[in-house]
């Protein structure tokens, strides 16, 4: 979920990165990391090993004796099946072969883009640099539209079989069930949370019927798009690749709610339709997808709360009565916004 560039990295000594009980990455010492890279890529590394920011996986920057900087990503065990990881790599490689600006995993000595060390799958990537933007000009919105439209023209040609499906029935309902089955909130708030989630699912599930699902980046926000001087935007980190509506790869870039972003939407669509018709009916899914993102983030935090190391990254009041009260209020507000849009006779714009 997190971009590669260094946000809070530190140089490692020759100790294990994590030592908490049950931590799947506990045995990834710098020596283990560098040896794994050398064997997988048939290169010689210097002693440089820098941990980069990543909440889910473990990501490092290393350097070869030839002076090349590589990014090595160790995937958290049990999060993705091998088939799911291969689908991600195959998709990005397909885009790369068609000269889209993405960063594909490097082919290794075995011919695969995945290797294993101590039962942990990992991949190597060439380091790419660029700037992050948090707002775009009219021309940049159109450029982003062309980039995503071009990607979707490829991704729509065939489905994936082993990645998540971003619909209320396939994703959100399961996350809600997990939250309600766990001991995450006081009983009286569990009832309120259950009620508001039930109302949300009743409202948004019919909106996804007859929606065409395609392969998606899945987590297309400012942190996963690099801007390079005199070059095009660069899409990074396809770790959350999924099947879903095309608008999923667009709405997180918007600076506000759908009805506040007419100009940005118009400019994006203008660029997008250079390569593919934009499914305008999916604009009505923007706010439902935002609500689904709320649930997704709550479920992610609940999962992190079980990991002593990862839980340190959670907000200080996570799981408190105040926290759950605010989440319930936010979800109800989003339900009201979706209901108003659904009842409106206006265009999705």
Description:
The protein is α+β, with helices and mostly antiparallel strands. The chain folds into 2 domains: 10-126, Phosphorylase Kinase, domain 1; 138-343, Transferase(Phosphotransferase) domain 1 (Transferase(Phosphotransferase), domain 1), CATH 1.10.510.10. It contains 10 helices and 10 strands. The chain has a 6-stranded antiparallel β-sheet with strand order 1-2-3-4-6-5, with helices on one face. The chain starts with 9 loop residues before the first strand and ends in a 6-residue tail after the last helix. The model is unreliable at 1-21 (pLDDT under 50).
Key descriptive features of the protein:
349 residues, alpha+beta, Transferase(Phosphotransferase), domain 1, two-stranded antiparallel ribbon, 10 helices, 40% helix, disordered N terminus
Summarize the entry for a quick read.
With 349 residues, the chain is of the alpha+beta class.
């Amino acid at each position: 979920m997190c971009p590669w560039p260094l946000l809070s990295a530190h140089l490692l000594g020759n100790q294990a990165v994590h030592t908490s009980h049950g931590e799947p990455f506990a045995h990834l010492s710098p020596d283990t990391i560098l040896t794994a890279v050398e064997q997988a890529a048939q290169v010689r590394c210097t002693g440089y090993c820098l941990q980069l920011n990543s909440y889910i996986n473990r990501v490092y920057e290393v350097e070869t004796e030839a002076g090349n900087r590589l990014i090595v990503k160790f995937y958290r065990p049990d999060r993705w099946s091998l088939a799911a990881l291969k689908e991600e790599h195959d998709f990005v490689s397909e885009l790369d072969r068609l000269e889209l600006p993405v960063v594909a995993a490097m082919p290794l000595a075995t011919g695969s883009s995945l290797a294993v060390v101590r039962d942990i799958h990992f991949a190597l990537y060439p380091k790419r640099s660029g700037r992050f933007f948090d707002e775009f000009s009219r021309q940049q919105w159109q450029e982003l539209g062309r980039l995503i439209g071009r990607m979707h023209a490829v991704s729509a040609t065939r489905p994936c079989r082993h990645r998540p499906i971003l619909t209320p029935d396939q994703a959100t309902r399961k996350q809600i069930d997990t939250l309600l089955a766990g001991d995450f909130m006081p009983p009286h708030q569990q009832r309120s949370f259950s009620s508001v989630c039930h109302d949300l699912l009743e409202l948004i599930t019919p909106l996804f019927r007859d929606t065409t699902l395609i392969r998606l980046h899945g987590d297309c926000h400012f942190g996963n798009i690099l801007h390079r001087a005199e070059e095009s935007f660069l899409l990074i980190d396809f770790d959350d690749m999924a099947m879903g509506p095309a608008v999923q790869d667009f709405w997180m870039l918007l600076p506000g709610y759908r009805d506040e972003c007419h100009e940005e939407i118009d400019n994006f669509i203008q660029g997008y339709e250079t390569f593919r018709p934009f499914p305008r009916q999916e604009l009505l899914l923007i706010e439902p997808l935002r609500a689904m993102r709320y649930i997704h983030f709550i479920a992610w935090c609940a999962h992190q709360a079980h990991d002593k190391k990862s839980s340190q990254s959670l907000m200080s009041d996570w799981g408190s009565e105040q926290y759950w009260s605010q989440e319930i209020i936010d979800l109800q507000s989003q339900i009201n916004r979706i209901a108003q849009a659904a009842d409106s006779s206006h265009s999705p714009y």
